[in-house]
Amino acid sequence: MGMTIAEKILAAHSGHDSVVPGQLIECATDWVLCHEITTPAALRMLEERGMDRVFNPDQIVAVPDHSVPAMNIKAAKMYQKLKSWVHEKGIKHFFDVGRGGIAHVVLENTGLMKPGQTLVSGDSHTCNAGALGAFATGVGSTDLAGAIYAGKVWFKVPETMLIRVTGQTQPGVTPKDIVLEVIKRIGADGANYMVMEWVGDYIDNLDMEGRFTLTNMAIEAGGKTGIVAVDDTTRAYMSARGVTPGAYTEYQSDADARFKVVVEVDASQVEPTVAYPHIPSNGRVAGSDRIAVSHAYVGSCTNGRITDLRDVARILKGRKVADGVQMIVVPATQAIWKQAAQEGLLEIFVDAGASVSYPSCGACLGMHSGVLGPDDVCISSSNRNFVGRMGDPSAQIYLASPATVAASAVAGFISDPRAYNDTINAAD
Question: Which positions fall inside the Aconitase/3-isopropylmalate dehydratase large subunit alpha/beta/alpha domain (predicted)?
């Protein structure tokens, strides 16, 4: 029996010729990604046990992102803890405030994380990096402490779900709509502890930014991680970051690999999709109901990239955000913020009446920069719409693509972005 991509990576990192789903392994970690929220708890565990060391300071990446610049004294102390630890342990891959942004998006753009590698972090959206053909997953602070100390983590080898996406999307339909459609079909636990492997000619023709959106939301279906096989698109992405194919290992799933389940998606039939409160699997076609919104949010590790901002600018250009709607745009990193400024996108956002914030996780997790109040209704390009996720428990959160968020911000109610397809043709 052959192996999947994920199984091959885990076998190579655990000293086995092969592994099978359900097998317990001790897996070496190539990278540990740390931010200021979950890392301090892991460090305290190590300090309390006299285990205050780092397995390899050159294999740790630290990026404060959740609540920076600090919103209060508690947040400032957590940031100070991370920063002092970085300096004490000689961790060179430190992307401080003003030099980084959202950790997952910062890491994917550095060239440090490579195909065939393993990554763990105390953050559930670590699966983002699986788009590079790597095994990347979130862990709790206890396992994070173990990874920092020993460079190893215990895993149960997961099953793999194969998601085959064929055909091409209609204008105005994006990778965010594809992943929301898949989660709607399989349910919020449909990929429980599975690897979600994306294949098909739609994936073959998809750019890296779109692939990151797909793998980022594996956790919203209960998945362990998402993954996309290395191809010419991946190689070109790595080459642009100074990384040649000889610097990494490519893995492909064998023809006789065993998949727990196969999901077939015809991309041409997918419509702009909105996940209604309070679960990402509660998907409906955008504009099915006339739901007024008070907030429109564009950002997060799912959809704060430059292509996302271009989609928003295409719709906002020459238009205004509706009265009564507070729109916030958060570029995912400093580099993306700068590129958006150079392309004139930020000016378009401001002219439309949107607020442009600094790179961070922002209001995505209800900690900072746009927290929702009682009974607010927000349409967001982020990844979760749980009760209280972005602020007050009575607030309603609807998940959608950046294009759908922009269309809704202009209309004042949840709207289908295909109404603006004429601007797609104009842009082309």
Answer: 7-282, 290-412
Alpha-carbon span 333 to 339, nearest angstrom: 10
Q: Which of 99, 94, 98, 103 is nearest to 66 (CA)?
A: 103
Between CA 360 and CA 69 the distance in angstroms is 8
Whole-number Å distance between alpha carbons of 200 and 165: 5
301 is in an annotated binding site: yes
Residue 27 is assigned to a ligand binding site: no
292-331 burial code (b ≥16 CB/10 A, e <16): ebbbbbbbbbbbbbbbbbbbbbbbbbebebbeebbbbbbb
Are 61 and 107 spatial neighbours (Cβ–Cβ below 8 Å)? yes
Phi, then psi, of 53 in degrees rounded to 5 = -145, 170
Which pLDDT belongs to residue 428? 47
In angstroms, rounded to a whole number, what is the distance separating the alpha carbons of residues 359 and 105? 11
Q: How far apart are CA 61 and CA 167, in angstroms?
A: 38
What tens digit of pLDDT does each residue of 33-75 get? 999 999 999 999 999 999 999 999 999 999 999 999 998 999 9
Dihedrals phi, psi of 161, to nearest 5 degrees: -100, 125
Nearest to 147 by CA among 50, 27, 48: 27
Q: What are residue 156's DSSP bridge partners?
A: 24
pLDDT at 369 over 90: no
Q: For the residues of 106-140, what is the DSSP string, one character each?
A: HHHHHS-S-TT-EEEESSGGGGGGGGGS-EEEE--
Mean pLDDT of 254-264: 97
Using an 8 Å Cβ cutoff, are 272 and 401 in contact?
A: yes
